[in-house]
Write a structure and sequence with these properties.
432 residues, alpha/beta, Enolase-like, domain 1, TIM Barrel, 2 domains, nine-stranded mixed sheet, 40% helix, 13% strand
């Protein structure tokens, strides 16, 4: 029998995956078939970007919460197709539900970002039924204090005074975060702030090259762009010194030549990574970029399931993968993705973005059971709209650059319903 490298990777992947699934099955066995799913609902919020909340109800009065990486309208339609295979079923049969939700074929292809939201809710329910936090069900903890990275916001990176003011402010913050990512392009006005859902129209307007200092979007960059990037990141590095790590955030909008040029522009400041400089899907452009730079490359927030990450990992074109816990297919998928990445010793960071505490908590739990963990993206604080207010009681906080994994059953999040009602998307009904 002739086995190539990819065959060996597939075989090796099945071994660690089996161990954590066996752990979960053993914990779940005494509670099997005691609870049934009665409904799956969706709620759109006005401050979660292109995502929405998912709720799975049961006949035992327990409720699990998840978050889909899709609009409420779209997720609601996708869930209607999933309901026949979920209603009346045991919520602890997560492996079965995951397969059915993600393997749907003709006449409808599976919608992974919505299936991911349901999967998160099922794990939340499983923890509540069994009486353990999700990370314990996943075989953790490997670490209980999860390293967090944040977002930098300097009005004008070409202004050295503005960079120094930002550095002084960040160093005085109690959260102690020491890794920040900034816009992929630099102009006199900095990055445009998007308000409300990031629709195609608002993105097009925000990214249009206006000549007035907004976010200058262009597929192909020129020498002036590279010079501004180099100067802006040089100013930042001078302002923060060596105590803070800097990274570049892109939106998968550049061609290969421009992505290589951006890497050359920021390489002198020793960046932690460049994020999503090329189109999200794998192509040989990623290989060319990897061969052309020493800047670490990070991508993955719009990739789905292990299959989406495989070509990046098999061809070793990225230094860090960055799955979104909902978009990638939920907690189940992210656990498998992390295991597969571990075969090539590739670190895993988790994308949170403009989401609620539900997806953030889900990422924290997977991170606690991931041996090749890098960092989790922060959603707390004013920059992300103070999402910590979604929690009932004591507000969660990052301290000394880490977030402690919740210890209560399930995701460990008690939701403040008054906060939810105050942030309903326009035209949305309460758990319609």
């Amino acid at each position: 029998m002739n086995l190539n490298r990819r065959d060996l990777l597939r075989i090796a992947m099945s071994l660690p995956a089996a161990s954590w699934l066996l752990n979960f099955r053993a914990l779940a066995a005494p509670f099997s078939k005691l609870v049934k799913i009665t409904d799956v609902k969706v709620l759109g919020l006005d401050n979660t970007g292109d995502g929405c909340l998912v709720r799975v109800d049961t006949d035992a009065g327990l409720t699990g919460y998840g978050e889909a990486a899709y609009s409420a309208q779209g997720a609601r339609a996708a869930i209607e197709l999933m309901k026949p295979s979920l209603i009346g079923q045991d919520p602890l049969a997560i492996e079965r539900h995951f397969y059915i939700m993600t393997a749907t074929q003709y006449p409808f292809m599976a919608h992974i970002p919505t299936a991911g939201g349901v999967d998160i809710a099922l794990w939340d329910l499983a923890g509540q039924i069994i009486g353990l936090p999700v990370y314990r069900l996943l075989g953790g903890p490997i670490q209980k204090d999860i390293p967090i990275y944040g977002h930098g916001s300097v009005p004008n990176m070409l202004d050295k005074g503005a960079c120094r003011a930002w550095a002084d402010q960040v160093k005085a913050e109690p959260d102690g975060i020491t890794t920040f990512k900034f816009t992929g392009l630099v102009s006199n006005g900095g990055a445009a702030r998007l308000r409300g859902p990031a629709t195609g129209a608002t993105l097009a307007n925000a990214f249009r090259r206006t000549g007035k200092g907004g976010f200058p979007y262009s597929t192909t960059l020129d020498g002036d762009d590279f010079e501004r990037v180099n100067q802006g990141y040089t100013n930042l590095r001078e302002a923060v010194g060596s105590s803070i790590d800097l990274a570049m955030h892109c939106n998968a909008q550049f061609d290969t030549r421009s992505a290589i040029g951006l890497c050359k522009a920021i390489e002198p400041v020793n960046p932690m990574w460049i994020e999503d400089p090329l189109n999200a899907r794998y192509s040989e452009a990623w290989l060319e970029l990897k061969r052309s730079t020493r800047v670490p490359i990070l991508t993955g927030e719009r990739l789905e399931l292990v299959a989406g990450f495989r070509p990046f990992l098999d061809n070793q074109v990225v230094d860090v993968i960055h799955p979104d816990t909902a978009c990638a297919g939920g907690i189940t998928a992210c656990r498998d993705i992390g295991k597969y990445a571990g075969l090539t010793r590739t670190p895993v960071a988790f994308h949170s973005g403009a989401c609620s505490l539900v997806k953030f908590y889900a990422s924290i739990h997977v991170a606690a059971a991931t041996q090749n963990l890098f960092k989790v993206e922060n959603v707390l604080g004013a920059f992300r709209g103070n999402q910590e207010n979604m929690a009932q009681g004591e507000k969660p906080a990052v301290r000394k650059g880490v977030f402690p994994v919740p210890e209560s059953p399930g995701l460990g999040l008690e939701i403040n319903e008054d906060w939810l009602r105050a942030h309903l998307q326009k035209g949305e009904k309460w758990w319609s």
